[in-house]
Amino acid sequence: MSTAEETSGGEMRPWAEVTPDAARRLLVAAVEAFAERGYHATTTRDIAGRAGMSPAALYIHYKTKEELLHRISRIGHDKALAILNAAADGEGGAAERLSVAVRSFVRWHAAQHTTARVVQYELEALGPDARAEILALRRQTDAVVRGIIQDGVAAGEFDVPDVPGTTLAVLSLCVDVARWFNVNGPRTPDEVGALYADLVLRMVGAGK
Amino acid sequence: MSTAEETSGGEMRPWAEVTPDAARRLLVAAVEAFAERGYHATTTRDIAGRAGMSPAALYIHYKTKEELLHRISRIGHDKALAILNAAADGEGGAAERLSVAVRSFVRWHAAQHTTARVVQYELEALGPDARAEILALRRQTDAVVRGIIQDGVAAGEFDVPDVPGTTLAVLSLCVDVARWFNVNGPRTPDEVGALYADLVLRMVGAGK
DNA sequence: CCGGGACCTGAGCGGGCGCTTAGCGAGCGT
DNA sequence: ACGCTCGCTAAGCGCCCGCTCAGGTCCCGG
């Protein structure tokens, strides 16, 4: 779970773990629809239609429309956290681990920007319990990045006056990639990852 | 329009330019509701209720619910652009102008985070014409920041390998403040502005 | 004291929403 | 060959949405 190929690519088909097939097709359709129009502007009829089913079919696999969002959000956050953890547990100094972490985290947010957009920006549509569960995952994400930065400061590699504030800014920067990234734009996910890794190293004062 | 007090504080009451009074109350109510729940999850009954009016009163001052969002978005973008222009036209070298620009831009996004959230994240709910108008304003915003960074590079003050990419990242970072800023959090808008100005100067390699 | 316009309300329309229910038909163990 | 189960659909329920409209209230010039 922390091997190199897991880290860099993850699973080829992002939703392979969702079964049966009809449930996965509905979930993929929901991701697309939520990303395009937002949760509240998406109708259950639209989701079912994209999956080639009647509106009622949705309720065989999911109790409510909100459960779809919850499942998407949970799986997406798990994936993002796994990517970050793999980088944080890797070899090398704080600078290299931070660089790898940002590069892979950003690459995921760019390549899977449809999913990431839903995961990162539709949180408020969740009910209190589901939202609390997701927020706990976000706190873990924050702790991982803060840990790397603290390591770098302790080792004298970084110069960071405000560790919590800088952590917040770094994560905000990476996550927001999902909002503006455009497949038809001039940059590949790899290029954005490399650019952002460089920018973040500058932010923490990793003089090289 | 580029004096110091205009730049730092703007108008005291943000929506003073909206008249008559009832129209302003409705608009303020809409900003709050859109920021809390999102455009699509907000009902016209909710907006009118917050403004202390009946649902029908809304349609005396605005043709549709979308016109409310359009007006909010337009005014907010104008204000954000004015803040940035004031900083870009200021005195001093590129580093100082970039610092002032980020500080005041971020301070606005933090202090007016309710408005900024609507302005920055509900764009997709607008119709094609309104959206095109707003996107033109965003391109101006981008051009202003890119201009300052280019000046710095040309003057040898900055070290920036990818000017458009860095501009995008800087703006993304500043704008995303509106998403996470919390009035009850540990940081004042001023403090966030100062932190971000420092981080951005590091991103452009403005050796101190 | 009256007439008129600006502003607002109560009631409600047409429609689309999330979700439910009754029942159909293909696949399969026996 | 049969009947059970599973996955699905057609139809539609009840609700609340954005929005409308006839009419009431109040202020103000004459």
From TrEMBL, chains A, B:
Residue span, HTH tetR-type domain: 20-80
Keywords: DNA-binding
GO molecular function: DNA-binding transcription factor activity; transcription cis-regulatory region binding
Keyword match Transcription regulation: no
Domain of life: Bacteria
InterPro entries: Homeodomain-like_sf (IPR009057), HTH-type_TetR-like_transc_reg (IPR050109), HTH_TetR (IPR001647), KstR2_TetR_C (IPR041490), Tet_transcr_reg_TetR-rel_C_sf (IPR036271)
A Pfam family of this chain: TetR_N
Protein name (record): TetR/AcrR family transcriptional regulator
PANTHER family reported for this sequence: HTH-TYPE TRANSCRIPTIONAL REGULATOR RUTR (PTHR30055), HTH-TYPE TRANSCRIPTIONAL REPRESSOR BDCR (PTHR30055:SF200)
DNA-binding region coordinates: 43-62
PROSITE patterns from the UniProt entry: HTH_TETR_2
